[in-house]
Design a protein that fits this description.
264 residues, mainly alpha, ZIP family metal transporter, transmembrane
């Protein structure tokens, strides 16, 4: 919810300011996620499981990466089908003579409007589901170690702020007012509380699964950073952008590293 509220501040600034600040937030989130996974979550998962089960932690990490790959494929598949709007079939030249070679022309207005509304709906569903998982991951981290929970929460916030800004942009583009977009985005964020409560009561009875839940958390952070955020950073190829990206990635690493050490 803090991430959603912080992101809502961008509703009050100009498009020019948003476009300048958002790339830096994405770079910072990349460093925060990578350091939280590799410096915080994985060491704790291995330590909690014990040396004898360290290979199982590695296997869980691999399985988590594959799981998030499949989930993203499913989301992309849904987006692909959501993009299918009403089309008009019109014959190409000589089609009347030959009775085939039909060409599909989309109704541009209804097609674009349908895509915008579908994207707004899907982003709310996807964000709500994602926040449930975030709540589960944060709860698992706190149940392992309160300091690890704080670090995990910081990393989640760092990742969520730029994502929430993007979500708000999609909602506004789907025809929602600023108030409605903000309200629905906050409601979607509340699902993280539900995930945390459910995870607490479920995992309290089976403490032995916590190291593997932490490994799943690490896999989610790694997948988001490597598969989603970093490819977006590579879209800018000029040296100046690359330098600033590296600066903010390192800043994200430093913030998580320092907060982790101070917590201990």
């Amino acid at each position: 919810m803090l991430s959603a509220l912080a992101a809502s501040l961008f509703l009050a600034v100009s498009d020019r300011v948003r476009s300048r600040v958002l790339p830096h937030l994405v770079s910072f989130a990349t460093g925060a996620l990578l350091s939280a996974a590799l410096l915080g979550l994985l060491p704790h998962a291995i330590e909690s499981a014990g040396a004898a089960d360290s290979h199982d932690i590695g296997l869980t990490l691999l399985g988590g990466l594959l799981l998030f790959f499949v989930l993203e494929k499913m989301v992309l598949w849904r987006h692909c089908h959501a993009d299918v709007c009403e089309v008009h079939v019109s014959p190409e030249p000589h089609a009347h003579a030959h009775g085939h070679n039909h060409h599909r022309h989309p109704n541009n207005h209804s097609h674009e409007h349908g895509r915008d509304r579908a994207s707004a709906t899907l982003i709310l569903i996807g964000d709500g589901f994602h926040n449930v998982l975030d709540g589960v991951l944060i709860a698992a981290a706190f149940m392992t170690d309160i300091h690890l929970g704080v670090v995990t929460a910081i990393a989640v916030c760092a990742h969520e702020i730029p994502q929430e800004v993007g979500d708000l942009a999609i909602l506004l583009n789907g025809g929602m007012s600023r108030l409605k977009a903000l309200t629905l985005n906050l409601l979607a964020s509340v699902t993280s509380v539900l995930g945390g409560v459910l995870a607490y009561f479920a995992m309290a009875e089976v403490q032995q699964v916590l190291p593997y839940a932490i490994a799943i958390a690490a896999s989610s952070f790694l997948y988001i950073a490597v598969a989603d955020l970093i490819p977006g950073l590579h879209r800018k190829v000029d040296p100046g952008s690359g330098v600033w990206q590296l600066v903010y990635i390192v800043l994200g690493v430093v913030v998580i590293y320092v907060s982790h050490n101070l917590a201990h």
